[in-house]
Amino acid sequence: MNPEPLVIVTRIGEEGRRLCDRVLAQGGAVLHLPLLRLEGPSDPDQTGAALRSMLPVDGLIVTSREGLRQLARLLEPTELEGIPLVVPGGGTASLAEELGLGPVFAPTGAGDSEAMLRLPCLREVAAQRWLILAAPDGRRLLDQALADRGARVLRADVYQRVPVALESSQARCIDDATQLVTLVASGSALERLRESLGPARWDRLRQSPMVLPSRRLLDRARVLGCTRAFLSRGADDASMLEALASCPTES
Q1: Is Flavoprotein included in the keywords of this UniProt record (predicted)?
Q2: Residues 136-162: pLDDT tens digits?
C-alpha cells in the first residue's frame, strides 16, 4: 500500500489552518505552507479617509475575507448602508452579512473573477461608480472588464501580501514526503512556491498533483511547467477537498 501523500496547503491565515484541520480529519498528512502573510494598511486613518472620499458609489467589490475584515476596521457599517456588495463566494458572503454589510451578491460554485463578472448586478454598469477593495496585486481582471462595460472603476488597496521565508522544518517535511499534493490558493501562492522552494523541490512539486481553483490559475500553472494540474469547482474548502479526493497521486 502506498503511503498517504503530504498535502501542502497554501491558503493564508485562519482559513488555511481550518482547511488543514479538515485534511487531517480525513486522515491525511498536511503541511501549512502559505509563504505569505497578510498586513493591513500602514496608515489606517489615511486609508479610511481615502475610502470616505470615494463614497458614494453604486457598488462595492471586495475580493476576499481579509478585504472584508479590513473594510470593517476602516469604516462603520452605517457609512456603507444600502450599497450593493459583491464578494467571491458563499463563505465571504456570510462574513459580510455578519458584519452588517449588504445587500450581498456572490456567485455560486467557482469564486473567480469570471464568475463574479457573470453576476446580473455587474452586467449593466455603464456610467456607474464601482469601488474595488483588494490587495495591490489582486483581481485586475475585474478593473478592466468593468471599465470595458462603461463603469467608472475606483480601487483601494486595503491590505497587502508580504513574503515569508521557507523554514528549514518545512523544507525537511517536503523532502521526507514520499508523495506530494498541493492545494494552491492563488496566483501569489503559486509564484511564492516557485520562488521559495529552490529548483529541486520546485521540480518535484510541479511534477506532483496540484489542485487549483480557477481556469486562469490552472493555465498559469501549466505555463510554469506543472504537469499534473487539476481544476477544482471553486476555492471553498468543500470544492478543494473534493478535487483532492479525486486527483490521482501516482504517476
Answers
A1: no
A2: 876 688 999 999 999 999 999 999 999
User: What contacts 209, CB < 8 A, 6 or more positions away?
Assistant: 5, 180, 181, 182, 228, 230, 247, 248, 249
Q: Is it the case that residue 56 has pLDDT exceeding 70?
A: yes
Query: Which sequence spans correspond to the domains of the chain?
Result: 6-35+164-246, 39-160
Handedness of CA 125, 129, 134, 136 (dihedral sign): positive
Give the separation between CA 47 and CA 51, rounded to whole angstroms. 6
Architecture (CATH level 2) of domain 39-160? 3-Layer(aba) Sandwich (3.40)
Instruction: Tell me, yes or no, if the pTM score tops 0.90.
Output: no
CATH code linked to domain 6-35+164-246 = 3.40.50.10090
